Amino acid sequence: MFRYAKHFLAALFCCISAAAQAYIKPQIQVRHWYTANQIPVYFVATTELPILDLKLAFAAGSARDAQQPGLAYLSSKMLFNQSGNTAFEQNRARFSSSVNRDKTVFHLRAVNQTPDIHQALKLFAAIFSAPDLSARHFQTEKRLLANKIQKEADSMKYQGEQNLYKALYVQHPYAHAPLGSVQNIQRLQPRDIKNFYRQYYVASNAVMSIVGNITEQRAREIAEIAARQIPAGKPAPALPLAQDASGAILKVAHSSTQVHLFIGQIGITPTDPAYFPLIVGNQILGGGALISRLGEELRLKRGLTYSVSSHFYPLAARGPFIIKLQTHHRQAEQACQLVQKVISQFVTNGPTTDELNAAKQKLLGNFPIQFDSNEEIVDQLLEIGFYHLPLDYFHRYQDKINAVTAEQVTAAFQRHINPAALTTVIVGGHE
Amino acid sequence: MRLIAEIRQLAITAFLLVVVAAEHVQAAPAAIHECRLTNGMQVLVQEDHRAPVVAIQLWYKVGASYEHEGITGISHVLEHMMSKGTPRYPKGRFSRLIAANGGIKNATTAADFTFYYTEITPDKVPLVLEMEADRMRNLLFKETELKRELRVVMEERRMRIDDNPEGTLNERLRAAAFISSPYHHPVAGWPQDIRHLTIDDLRRWYQRWYVPDNAALVIVGDVNSAQICSLAQQTFGAVPHEPLAALKPQTEMPQLGAKTIIINFPANSDYVYLGYPVPGLKTASQSWEPYALIILAKLLTDPRSDFQQQLTRKQILASSIAVEYIPYSRLDNLLTIKARVATGVKSRHLVQKLFAELNKLQTHLLPERQLQQIKRQLITEQIFEQDNLASRAREIGRLTAIGLPYQILGNFEKNINAVTAEQLREAARHYLTAARSNTATLNHD
């Protein structure tokens, strides 16, 4: 009965909205409040699965490393000795962390069953008041991080991406890789970690998201337990906005038959007014994989590559726009020139009506499909909280996509993408 | 007064019961409904009404292990060709229709199966089934399309294998470990086989294997099982039954002793891969064996295990060690230990130590507490996997594709819990021996 009501409501919404296209909206209700220590919490109740997902993020990404690349990453690992401690697993839970340039995120995934869930939550809360800063743990994590960096030296994808960031951002805090370098890691001391916690792992710098088969009342209780031990502190200052790069070609040595190409420039923040026209435009240019201008020209027509795509990666201080593809090294020049041509044509002329409609249909229809798991919802909630996106995000996103016009796409691309100043990183090709 | 107190007591008790009941949730997955169409095709459906989304997977029981030398890689190329259109839905139409409805579309070829995956809203399910049924028998084969697609496939091979140290090492390991088993050759196929595939080869392969009897439709999501069965009959049921050509027996020659290979390949470190032929859910002579091997594989990757501690912590001979074991294999496969040699360490030294640690598994019994922890982890992970519609459909599909009943999924927890420390030791004694070992070393200098 409830299911039919859900679909009836969805149908109702789609008829009410003065839209050319009908679409189903995800039925996701976001609840929002603050913990006693003022951490904003975003919650969605789900059913059918006994899983709880809780994510706690701090504005403590690698952009906060200052002169110590790798500090944010190592700090996130030092909070809890994952490789030495079975406490979470014993309580049917999993603790993990991730660090990107903007934020550090801690994730608790737990089977929602007593008494395990209580224990898992207590454990999670406790690590913020008592991180394992022993010398032994410190040495282990440093070594694991050094190993990880060395392993990435074999990854053409990693080398290409990180070198592109370096070339684009130069001296900006986004330039260096979040993992840092082996030399930098060696220089880090436990006091650096402590200072990092003191400065950044604080309530006024935090955001929390919760998804699970629980009531809002229960979610509020859980949020309090999880947040209780975190001191108030001060929010991290805003990062300086990145300035446009001048465009350059950089070759990274790697012994391979293919080259991996990373072509890009500095893009936007998550709240840029041009966000929706750019997303729609990017879908046409290269976001739609095979059904895109880049896919059509490079793979379908010429078989030059297995995979080609373009993406905007919005970040707080302007994240990059990146085109990626791989091709036999003898085809590298042809591929680069073709990419240049495709982008120039798109920026100059914009999309056709058919392309615009197809892209919108894809994005509109895909939106509810994107949120069919706890994981996807809890991630998006965190983005909403961290970047101050509107609370009605799940409800309004498709309306905004639907409202985009061809003129807006063309104007947005002309304003934000400069085909004459793209930075290119070419990895490999030396046999 | 007393009456009110009693009522209050009852109310509190009721409240507690409600709280407890709400917290105690059923971890078992929803029921799977099965139906078989008149032409022999299998259909499996699991309802999930969390979101207006449906995961549709069409599994064909054919993959690289069905191929022979000369046409290796053909199943993968056929997967690429499946997007080239039919008379009714010309090239790109299927993709565009799915995209136009916001859906996601993908395909995967493996050794034992090929499956085509679409994720879409419930109202578009009939359209997807119609298009999948159509391309099951009506695919167009054009020379120019094949030529172009072979170039794409070669780029894919380069990316995944030829330029990839671990990709190459794994390919060479398996070629050495498997003598007569069709797991000897890679899913991507050998380059000269790929380059020489003809349009006739593709058409013949398609006509032989893409028949209703050889396919299983798996659907997980916001659907009604009964409706799906009748919809499947309307769409796929129209595809005429074709006799399924038999596959000749593919037995592996018994391994007569340890094998070692060395490859020289540019990389930033040495790698050591150790592969042991082991049975899976389909081929095990004793039903507990695959579960013991699942536990062993998990144990070997647990950072707190003796194995990891001795090799990556107390002494640092490897910077990382991963383990791969695929229980849902059609034939005996490998349990592979994948190690990256630590800087300054000689790979043969790591190999010696790996053998020494594996020997311990044959003599020592794993302490009960540790065994319980590993079991708990495996069961918890299985619950977490339920979050994703696609992975649930895959779990059902990959069992069905090798002719195993999906009920195995529901018994996972029971079977894992039943494994004893003695059985673990027995599995190690039987399978992880020097005489059965296949060692592949990548020398990066």
Account of the protein in words:
The complex is a heterodimer of chains A (431) and B (445). Chain A has helices spanning 2-16, 71-78, 87-90, 116-127, 135-152, 156-169, 182-187, 190-200, 216-227, 275-287, 293-300, 332-349, 353-369, 374-386, 393-402, 406-416, and strands at residues 31-34, 40-45, 51-58, 93-99, 104-111, 206-212, 249-252, 258-266, 308-312, 320-328, 423-428. Chain A is α+β, with helices and mostly antiparallel strands and 431 residues long. In chain A, a hairpin with a 7-residue loop joins strand 9 (308-312) and strand 10 (320-328). In chain A, helix 4 runs parallel beside helix 9, helix 10 packs across helix 16 (406-416) and helix 13 (353-369) runs antiparallel to helix 15. Chain A starts with a helix and ends with a strand. In chain B, 45% of the residues lie in helices and 17% in strands. Chain B has helices spanning 2-23, 74-81, 93-100, 125-137, 143-162, 165-177, 191-195, 199-209, 225-235, 289-301, 306-313, 347-363, 368-385, 389-400, 407-410, 412-418, 421-431; strands at residues 32-36, 42-47, 54-60, 104-109, 114-120, 215-221, 259-264, 271-278, 318-325, 333-341, 438-443. Chain B is globular, with a radius of gyration of 25 Å. Mean pLDDT of chain B is 92; it is low at 1-27.
- Global shape of chain A: globular
Roughly what fraction of the amino acids of chain A lie in strands?
A: 15-25%
CA gyration radius of chain B, whole angstroms: 25 Å
Helix content of chain B: 40-55%
Strand order of the largest sheet of chain A: 1-2-6-3-5-4
Describe the strand arrangement of the main beta sheet of chain B, using strand numbers.
Answer: 1-2-6-3-5-4
**Helix coverage percent of residues of chain A?**
40-55%
Secondary structure: number of strands of chain A? 11
Number of helices of chain B: 17
What about the largest sheet of chain A?
Answer: 6 strands, mixed
Share in β-strands of chain B: 15-25%
**Which structural category fits the helices and strands of chain B?**
alpha+beta
